[in-house]
Amino acid sequence: MALLHRAEIRPTKLELLTAWLPSRGWYQGDAAAEVVRVAAYRFDDPAGEVGIETLLVRAGAGPVHQVPLTYRGAPLPSADAWLIGTMEHSALGTRWVYDACADPVYAAALAEAVLADTGQAEEYFEVDGHREVRAPSMEISSDPGGIDVPAVGAVRRVVDGTLTVIVTDTVELTLLRRPDAAAGGTPNGTVATLSGAWDGVSIPLAYAALR
Fold it and tell me: The Maltokinase N-terminal cap domain covers which part of the protein (predicted)?
């Protein structure tokens, strides 16, 4: 479960992405357009230390882009190239925001979601000592096919692109940066996929694959 805070954040996630996305080779859209949120889903970090959120965003009339983020209370070692920026959170202090594809906590959570169909984390606020659940903005599911989830260790290599490949000690994950028919589909050798849909999307789209 993901505890949310009614907090002031500066700069906001979308402000960070508005500045960062045009620098990505896989980005399509007006570099001057403001990035807006379409939907989002979260995973749990079993240790409770790292926030894991995937945003579906669009800039202007451009396509929807999938951007997984991790939020950390300290820098991730050897990951400066994947740092999107820092933000000041009124409840949690300084947060380092990373493109999650290089974060081993995200890779492990994504493998669990693809192979074990663990779904997304339930989001809630604490209000006067009571839990107030926020309804999800989209749905995700997988087709694991009875495959065991291996332990995912270090991220050994990331090949960034429209199909971003995350190579770990045990599995290879592919993230579709633009989860639509134009994104190129899933790679050969795929054994399981993560799909999802939000308001206005009637057919679930592939978001990630594992081989």
Answer: 20-103
What is residue 162's predicted lDDT score, i.e. its pLDDT? 92
Q: Give a three-class secondary structure readout of the chain.
A: CEECCCCCEECCHHHHHHHHHHHCCCCCCCCCCCEEEEEEEEECCCCCCCEEEEEEEEECCCCCEEEEEEEECCCCCCCHHHEEEEEEECCCEEEEEEEHHHCHHHHHHHHHHHHHCCCCCCEEEEECCEEEEECCCEEEEECCCCCCCCCCCCEEEEECCCEEEEEECCCEEEEECCCCHHHCCCCCCCCEEEEEEECCCCCCEEEEEEC
**Res 183: pLDDT:** 45
Domain boundaries, the chain: 2-210
Confidence (pLDDT) at 9: 81
